[in-house]
């Protein structure tokens, strides 16, 4: 315990046993994580890319980060996403994260995706923007079916007109139906964004009619 307190910054953020210098994870824990090159088409001109499926070690880490108050894990996700997209940074002017409802943010005490978005923007040297807001409270998508999810987020966002002409990287944590990313991407494009590309940490493997067209290829 004392070792952990004194040297926490250098201990692996996952197992807290092994030492690590850079990525926040030790070699053994990194080996448990398998990158894929996933891509879901969510609109005719908007794709969502993702480095992981939602399962295994990534799922464990996301649950710990989002629901067990292990907020320091933002470093792990930032490093993993950074390694995944750093060679493509020229494609974007701004990073925007999917906004939380005030109710949800207040309940948790922190906004997991916003923290990662800000840190990722610092590392990539791309502006972070709070240009998007919820225009009304929405229900947690988790408990809704596909049709209800679409209805739940319909017209739920508004964007600052400053997005006009910008190439946006829209970040979220997990993609399930894609309804939220689709709705927000449409809102951003209607507000004049030049392009929107979505990035999530992990995508559900589930594929249902009308959800998305999946094909995996290099981003
Ligand atoms: Zn480890």
Descriptive tags:
8 helices; about 35% helix; Rossmann fold; about 220 residues; alpha/beta; binds zinc ion; two-stranded antiparallel ribbon; 2 domains
Account of the protein in words:
This protein has 219 residues and is an alpha/beta fold. The protein has two domains: 1-32, no CATH class; 34-214, Rossmann fold, CATH 3.40.50.2020. The chain contains eight helices and ten strands. The chain has helices at residues 2-7, 27-31, 56-67, 74-85, 102-108, 112-124, 146-153, 179-190, and strands at residues 38-43, 46-50, 52-53, 94-97, 127-129, 132-134, 157-159, 167-175, 195-203, 213-214. The strands form two sheets. Strands 1, 2, 3, 4, 5, 8, 9 and 10 form an eight-stranded mixed beta sheet that branches. The protein has a two-stranded antiparallel ribbon with strand order 6-7. α4 crosses α6 (112-124). The radius of gyration is 17 Å and the shape is globular. The termini are far apart. Residues 1-8 and 208-219 have low confidence and may be disordered. The protein binds zinc ion. The site of zinc ion (ZN) has 8 residues, from α2.
Contiguous helical run count: 8
Q: H/E order of the elements?
A: HHEEEHHEHHEEHEEHEE
Largest sheet geometry: 8 strands, mixed
Helix content: 25-40%
Q: Which regions contain 5 or more consecutive residues with pLDDT less than 50?
A: 1-8, 208-219
Sheet-strand content, in percent, reads 15-25%
What is the C-level CATH assignment of the largest domain?
Alpha Beta
Total strand segments: 10
Instruction: Give the second-level CATH assignment, the architecture of the largest domain.
Output: 3-Layer(aba) Sandwich
How many domains comprise the coordinates? 2
* Rounded average pLDDT: 83
Small-molecule binders: zinc ion
Amino-to-carboxy terminus distance: 42 Å
Structural class: alpha/beta
Please give the radius of gyration in angstroms.
17 Å
The CATH topology of the largest domain = Rossmann fold
Q: Give the overall silhouette.
A: globular
């Amino acid at each position: 315990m004392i070792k952990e307190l004194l040297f926490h910054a250098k201990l692996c953020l996952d197992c807290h046993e092994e030492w690590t210098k850079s990525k926040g994870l030790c070699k053994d824990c990194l080996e448990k994580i398998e990158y894929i090159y996933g891509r879901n088409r969510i609109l005719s001109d908007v794709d969502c890319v993702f480095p992981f499926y939602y399962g295994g070690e990534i799922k464990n880490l996301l649950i710990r980060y989002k629901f067990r108050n292990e907020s320091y894990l933002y470093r792990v996700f930032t490093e993993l996403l950074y390694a995944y997209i750093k060679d493509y940074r020229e494609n974007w002017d701004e990073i925007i994260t999917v906004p939380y409802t005030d109710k949800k943010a207040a309940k948790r005490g922190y906004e997991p995706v916003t923290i990662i978005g800000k840190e990722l923007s610092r590392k990539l040297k791309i502006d972070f923007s709070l240009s998007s807001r919820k225009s009304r409270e929405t229900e947690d998508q988790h408990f809704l079916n596909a049709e209800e999810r679409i209805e739940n987020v319909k017209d739920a966002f508004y964007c600052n007109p400053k997005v006009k002409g910008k190439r946006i990287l829209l970040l979220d944590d997990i993609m399930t139906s894609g309804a939220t990313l689709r709705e927000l991407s449409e809102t951003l494009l209607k507000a004049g964004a030049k392009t929107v590309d979505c990035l999530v940490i992990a995508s559900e493997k589930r594929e249902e009619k009308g959800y998305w067209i999946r094909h995996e290829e290099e981003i």
